[in-house]
Design brief:
This protein is an alpha+beta fold. It folds into three domains: about 270 residues, no CATH class; about 50 residues; about 35 residues, no CATH class. It is about 40% helix and about 15% strand. The protein has twelve helices and eleven strands. The strands form four sheets. A three-stranded antiparallel sheet has the order 2-1-11. Strands 4-3-8 form a three-stranded antiparallel sheet. The longest helix is centred in the C-terminal third of the chain and has 27 residues.
Length: about 400
């Protein structure tokens, strides 16, 4: 079996120069001609169509995470010297509350989170005067964005294409700063794009979609499995049908025995005809079991407890309250922290280097019980002074 390190370059024996450190991520810049965009290896449009638009489990999982995450507000802190204070009013908060004329904060954030969950990539475009604070924020569709590679593993630009029109948003080759914020999930085999949960759950989504299509086709066919009409050879019969007999039989089957309106109508056979079933029954295929199993796998890929999606057979948590808490702690909060950290590195410095965004955990009702229990433990800790308790609880000194 080949070793994972076999791709690393080998030095020739004649090379006597000291070995210098080199970033192997920079080698990706030489794999693509300069100025040519690198598109995702997977079709994002297909992810959105089959994995979100046509699959109820993936659709509900994405919607549940995105809408819940979009409802959590941010707090703004300003750090000066050795002190910090919470800022109640600031242009950055105004921008986040009113990002553009067509969207409010909740709608924009929901789209941002949903794109990252569906495509593994999300793009936020800041529009404003060059060198100044942005005036608007817009979410870009991932299927329209291509990365133009640059030197050292840093993108040269982001190319946004609509129909035949293309716009390049440049990236600073030194700092990596750009008017585009690229949010992506970890992908072990791609230097530029993130891995979509839809791709990880692709087989399960296909199975679930096929179960739905199979069930729909069965219902449209009068809930009868497919089969064949056999012509038996016997007295006065050669075992074949003439062209006119074949067309008449086909027309009768289509008009009188197919479709939900003809469900249960008996099939009258004559002239040595015999019906033979050719497909497996739903019981043989374990139709419901396969459907629930694929639904659980889809929920697992998105990090949503199956109970919250109405999927039976997997009661990992004792009740729905525990399942909702697990959803927040294991899926929604990590997503929010990741986006908040990215905004602090990208958006906040455009206004002031001393500004920092943080999640308002007090605005999350599901975490209230844990927060109350934490406060109670701190308040009963007799070995702590009043100021130490305030510091642990995040309360300003002397309040």
């Amino acid at each position: 079996m080949a070793r994972l390190t076999s791709w690393l370059p080998r030095r020739r024996a004649a090379d006597t120069a000291p070995l210098q450190e080199k970033s192997y991520s920079a080698t990706t810049a030489f794999m693509v001609p300069s100025g040519q965009p690198v598109w995702m290896r997977r079709d994002v449009s297909k992810f959105a169509d089959e994995g979100y638009r046509r699959n109820v489990i993936a659709h509900r999982a994405v919607s549940m995470i995105a809408t819940a995450a979009a409802a959590v507000p941010w707090k703004l802190t300003e750090r000066r010297a050795r002190s910090s204070r919470t800022v109640e009013s600031h242009p950055l908060l105004t921008l986040l509350a009113n990002p553009n004329p067509l969207q409010g904060s909740t709608e924009l954030c929901e789209a941002l989170y949903a794109h990252r969950l569906i495509a593994g990539n999300a793009y936020l475009h800041a529009i404003g005067p060059k060198g100044g604070a942005p005036l608007e924020l817009h979410v870009l569709r991932p299927d329209r964005v291509a990365i133009i590679p640059g030197a050292g593993g840093i993108p040269k630009a982001y190319r946004y294409t609509v129909d035949t029109r293309a716009m390049d948003i440049p990236v600073d080759a030194i700092t990596g700063q750009s008017r585009i914020l690229h949010l992506k999930t970890f992908h072990p085999l791609d230097d530029w794009y993130g891995l979509s949960p839809v791709e990880a759950a692709a087989y399960s989504i296909d199975q679930h979609n096929q179960c739905g299509a199979w069930n729909q086709a069965l219902l449209q066919n009068g809930a009868r499995p497919s089969g064949a009409l056999l012509v038996k050879a016997g007295e006065g019969s050669t075992g074949t049908l003439s062209e006119s007999q074949y067309q008449r039989l086909k027309s009768q089957l289509d008009d009188q025995f197919s479709g939900a309106a003809n469900a249960g109508r008996p099939l009258l056979l004559e002239g040595g005809l015999e019906w033979k079933e050719m497909s497996l029954s739903p019981r043989d295929m374990d139709f419901i079991g396969i459907k629930h199993s694929s639904a659980r796998d889809i929920a697992l890929a998105f990090g949503v407890p199956p109970q919250l999606l109405g999927i039976p057979g997997d009661n990992t948590y004792a009740n729905l309250k525990e399942a909702r808490l697990a959803l927040w702690e294991q899926t929604i909060l990590p997503l929010l922290e990741s986006v908040t950290d990215a905004l602090n590195n990208w958006l906040a410095p455009m206004f002031d280097s001393g500004l920092s965004l943080a999640l308002d955990h007090d605005a999350i009702p599901i975490l209230a019980e844990k927060r109350d229990a934490y406060w109670e433990r701190i308040s009963k800790a007799d070995f702590l002074t009043a100021d130490e308790k305030r510091k642990l609880l995040g309360i300003a000194h002397g309040v």
